């Protein structure tokens, strides 16, 4: 066997091994991203369940806001019951924005009900939400970091060529913004505080 044939065979084997190594690397990063998304989705669902406890309590105290509170409870239920897979991340983000927007109005109007602030049951429920906000914030931070790692990986040559061949693109994945996460009580959880 001639030297040039040995070199060609060696290069071919090297390219094939390299191709499969790159595929394994992409798949590993993709699985890590999906795992962090699942953790984030679970943290959001726990937040929604705790939020529902507070909202059910508020219905008894804020009778003028029943329809708005019920709408918010329905949004929480809808988000919890939605498809948790990463392909529906844009819906989860939309749910989160809708819930936060509606919460703002209720938070503003809570000031007109001093009995709520003095109730120990509501304060305990609010503290549980605050704890869940920190967990959501941490899950968002980890998800965003994995999302960035995945994007950098797909943009790196020669991985970008293999990703293009496999039709893998990071554009379908939307990052959550930590600034969207707010607690239900008075304090705003800033990105630096989480």
Overview of this structure, please?
The chain is mainly α and 194 residues long. The chain has one domain. Helices cover 75% and strands 0% of the residues. It has helices at residues 3-61, 66-81, 89-110, 114-118, 120-155, 159-165. Helix 1 (3-61) packs antiparallel against helix 2 and helix 1 packs antiparallel against helix 5. It starts with a helix and ends in a 29-residue tail after the last helix. The model is unreliable at 179-194 (pLDDT under 50).
Question: Concise description?
Answer:
With 194 residues, the chain is mostly helical.
Number of strands: 0
Strand proportion, as a percent range, falls in under 5%
Mean pLDDT: 77
Helix content: over 70%
What's the number of structural domains? 1
Low-confidence stretches: 179-194
